[in-house]
Give the backbone structure.
Amino acid sequence: MRQEQIQALLRQMMLQEKVAQLVQLTPQFFVKAHKGEITGPMAWLGIEENEVQNIGSVLGTHALEEVIKIQENHLKTSPLGIPLIFMADVVHGYETIFSFH
């Protein structure tokens, strides 16, 4: 994207959409079949399905199939067409050094 396109996109975004881009959620918010349950502070946030459309990043998945599924579904429903950023919390090289799969 060119700088002018980015600036135009930012001008059309509401404040709520800009703030949502700073939010990071777990895969459970994007894939209903994902193992695990949303509990604790994440459950207390009360994030609605329509709010997930503007979220900026996902933390907690590295399975290629799941990443592709989440991204494809997100881009189908994202009103602005902004792709998700996928983050990984790799402590001490677990996935890069000690992974056995």
